Amino acid sequence: MPIAFAYTLIVLLIITSILLTLLILLHRGKGGGMSSMFGGGVTSSLSGSSVAEKNLDRYTVLVGIIWFACIVGLGFWLKVQIA
């Protein structure tokens, strides 16, 4: 496999890592943890999950799957290059 494949996966891995970190930080704290200790547990939603929170969950899972696929792809590429 060409080296451009590995560079593409590395760039995609860096982008998804940053995006995944930001998406996780955007999630609302569920209470009882470190977020409530610093005032994050003051507000509570009475209606459960909103559409924005569900979409945020979906985007987080999608970016996580892409991130995982990049890791596996780099592993396979390294295995082919070593053998």
Key structural traits:
83 residues, mainly alpha, elongated
Describe the structure.
This protein is mainly α and 83 residues long. The chain is built from 3 helices and no strands.
Please describe the topology of this protein.
Blueprint: H1 3-26, H2 34-37, H3 51-82
Helix pairs in contact: 1-3
In a nutshell, what does this entry contain?
The chain is an all-alpha fold. It has three helices and no strands.
Spatial extent as radius of gyration: 18 Å
Relative helix content: over 70%
Query: What's the count of strands?
Result: 0
Structural class: mainly alpha
**In sequence order, what are the helices and strands, one letter per element?**
HHH
Shape: elongated
Q: What percent of residues are in strands?
A: under 5%
**Biggest sheet descriptor:** none
Q: Describe the oligomeric state of these chains in a short phrase.
A: single chain
Which stretches are poorly predicted, pLDDT < 50 over at least 5 residues? none
The overall average pLDDT, rounded, is 84
Annotation field: number of helices: 3
Span from first to last CA? Answer: 12 Å
